[in-house]
Design brief:
Layout: E1 8-13, H1 16-25, E2 31-32, E3 37-41, E4 46-51, H2 52-58, E5 72-76, H3 80-92, E6 97-103, E7 109-114, E8 120-124
Parallel strand pairs: 1-4, 5-8
Antiparallel strand pairs: 2-3, 3-4, 6-7, 7-8
């Protein structure tokens, strides 16, 4: 099989404008391509957002999910304080917090918030090697 590369993640959403507003508030910059599709380019991959309506236009078998998935998109922020600020800002704006900021065992500050469609979005600071600890016992 030929080598593949990650191009990006595509979120299928109910309301493109509401979802773009959430991710813009989280610090990403988007470009609209029509009313029903938007893209945020990253260093190596893109986050693409398309409406259910647009998706049904090319995929007759598409079905809306009953709930958000068990996947968390990851957003890197500049500092440990930026994780706390992102969580505080988004939850104050009415988005559901899932995991309040913690000092994660892998050495980063980390928090999770749900986007308008219930997808988990993790905010992570750079790793500080001096803050690493043992992972939870499972």
């Amino acid at each position: 099989m030929p080598k593949a590369t990650l191009r990006g993640i595509h979120l299928f959403v109910k309301d493109v404008a509401a979802t773009v507003a959430f991710y813009r508030r989280a610090g990403l910059e988007f470009e609209y391509v029509g009313r029903q599709f938007a893209r945020a380019e990253g260093d190596r991959a893109a986050l693409e957002i398309g409406s259910y309506e647009l998706t049904r236009g090319y995929d007759a078998g598409f079905r809306e999910p009953a709930t958000g998935g068990a996947t968390a998109l990851q957003v890197g922020v500049a500092s440990r304080d930026a994780v706390d600020a992102a969580y505080a800002d988004l939850t104050a704006a009415g988005f559901a917090g899932h995991l309040a900021p913690i000092d994660a065992f892998w050495g980063a500050r980390y928090a999770e918030v749900r986007d308008p469609d219930g997808n988990l979005v993790g905010f992570q600071s750079p790793v500080d090697e001096n803050r690493r600890s043992a992972p939870p016992a499972i």
